[in-house]
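Open question from group meeting: does this chain pack into something compact, or does most of it stay loose? Before anyone orders reagents, we agreed to write out a predicted structure and look at it together. Recording both the input and the output here so the notebook holds the full record.
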Amino acid sequence: MLEKIRSDLDKLSGAERRVAEQVLAQPYTVMQSAVSDIAASAGVSQPTVIRFCRSMGFSGLSDFKLKLAGTLVGGVPYVHSSVRPEDPVSEITAKVFDNTVTALLKCRNDVNPQAVDAAVDLLSHARRIEFYGLGNSGIIAADAQHKFFRFGIPTVAYADSHIQIMAATLLTPDDVLVAISSSGRSRELMDAVNAALESGAKVIAITVPGTPLAERATVTLEVDSPEDNETYSPMLSRILHLVLIDILTVGVALKRGPGLATQLEKAKRSLRQKRLRNDNDDE
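Structure tokens returned:
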């Protein structure tokens, strides 16, 4: 519904357009406001608010609000850049939550089960796993390494482009590189990916579809989140990347069977013993 309003802006009169812009800027506030409050905020008369609702194909304000509520409950495709300086905290909170939930649901519906299965299979049989990411994606790579090293597979995470390309040349056909990128177009990361492929290693990409990284990788887990990565720090893609890493972690854990559970329990016992020794030392 909000997309329809946005696309019809040029068809509206000047006064009706001000109402439309008010709805786009603060949909939750409009949904809960009386016609007088909406008119005052938009700087128009109350009849103009009703005319706007009818221009959009609704019988009146009540009908308009009902459809608007359904759109908001279903999830609004906001990007965080749509948060405005004048937004109240309640509006900011709603926008960020709705944006994140919507992105997660879209990713869940779009994810390719065959690609996930292929990635899990590669990781389960890897001699060594390396996670590469630059900037914000480097943090995701570190999180992935922290999860996967517990499986007894040699793992490492690199966030420096010079180290990445040097390490990639040392990989073998039994190794797997997981390349994480919110843009899929980083030249430095692509250099490392190309070096890994030339060494015979397999590459799993977690990135935007249709990008150089997505097309070059052995297996691609596509993450299509509408973000302005040039201006804003990636938020949605960061969360989606973390969820995909969790999916791969669970998949590999199940693939490796009951022996992994024994190994993890052994690691937990070691940690408990270490805590007990530290407590005794403190006493």
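Observations to bring back to the group:
The chain is about 60% helix and 10% strand.
Residues 74-79 have pLDDT under 50 and may be disordered.
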